[in-house]
Automatic annotation (TrEMBL):
InterPro entries for the chain: CB, DNA_brk_join_enz, Integrase-like_cat_sf, Integrase_catalytic, Integrase_recombinase_N, Integrase_SAM-like_N, Min27-like_integrase_DNA_bind, Phage_Integrase
Keyword annotations: DNA integration, DNA recombination, DNA-binding
Family assignment from sequence similarity: Belongs to the 'phage' integrase family.
Residues covered by the Tyr recombinase domain: 185-373
Superkingdom assignment: Bacteria
Matching SUPFAM superfamilies: DNA breaking-rejoining enzymes (SSF56349)
Core-binding (CB) domain sequence ranges: 81-160
Cross-referenced PANTHER family: PROPHAGE INTEGRASE (PTHR30629), PROPHAGE INTEGRASE INTS-RELATED (PTHR30629:SF2)
Organism: Pseudomonas oryzicola
Protein name per UniProt: Site-specific integrase
Amino acid sequence: MGRGGSGVRAVSDSSIEITFMFRGVRCRERVALKPTATKLKKAQQHKAAIEHAIAQGTFDYSITFPGSPRAAKFAPETSQETVGGYLTRWLETKKKHISSSTFEGYRKIVELRLVPALGYHLVLDLKRKTIKDWLDKLQVGNKTLSNIQSCLRSALNDAVDEELLDTNPLTGWTYVRKEAPPKDDDVDPFTPEEQQAILVALAGQARNMVQFALWTGLRTSELVALDWGDVDWVRGEVMISRAMTQAAGGEAEVTKTAAGRRSVKLLRPALEALTAQKVHTFLADKEVFQNPRTLERWTGDQPIRKTMWHPAMKKAGVRYRRPYQTRHTYASMMLSAGEHPMWVAKQMGHSDWTMIARVYGRWMPSADAEAGGKAEMLWQPELSDSVSSIIK
């Protein structure tokens, strides 16, 4: 901070550095004064005058330090920009650079969460504590908290690039609750009896699609984006590379992650559903599954729920769960049968199986009394023989 913690110090034979806080930012500026005792005292008086002007709200950075690179950052038109104004402007610039679904997610977070809560703050005044105190009051789960912070972190990173901020207050920090509020719709797979009842309640294309979903674990957005050209009949696989969301406006988009672009093995029930579907849409050589009412590609999750899923669940007498539970059902069936978690993760489009273990761990078989025996026999056969002889 300088001599005696005064915020004034000599930095060369011809200049003195003054340190002060302005709008939450530590500022260091040099003045062309030879660092004699008299000049250092004069610099301290100059610093005191700066701090008084800051306290009175009359400090003008560009007038006091006209040659400073930092002066542009604190110009009135930029220093007075609110978080709400900046986020609105930022959102518009992001529109052409991100997918429709990502933009729609950002838009909802900005307009419904960030602007109402933080919009009146000046960008320069936004502090981590302010954000943390607000997040702490939200009655949402950790997933939503993560999405909010991801959006805000991206926006503030761009604010740093624009030199509106020195540092991003969210850098190196993420707010997470130890115990997230319970989710309205947790993992709740269909039993074999419920699956059969649902399929019996359906017919034609609707039945084929649900059976295919139950035995591939595809997301609804991936299911409706599927084309016949994605099916590899020789290998018995289907290639997943696109997804269709409401935000995309009826257009399929490339999946967000590399892991999401994958080959899914066609198990026998899935292959049977696909074969049965051929009679309906195969000759058109476009979408695999259609809305039976319009004979066009499904446009997303909402029409499926309204025109097909709700009536089928009611007719089957099955407790209602959303269509996405077909994906959870697939995971639980595979793991309960003893399939390797990493294989299940790859089938479902996850980069590793940590999420599989966390979400579906209760369906993974526990080790039995013979666990480890195969490893002993393979790697230490001599030891196994000697133990056998002792037992005999």
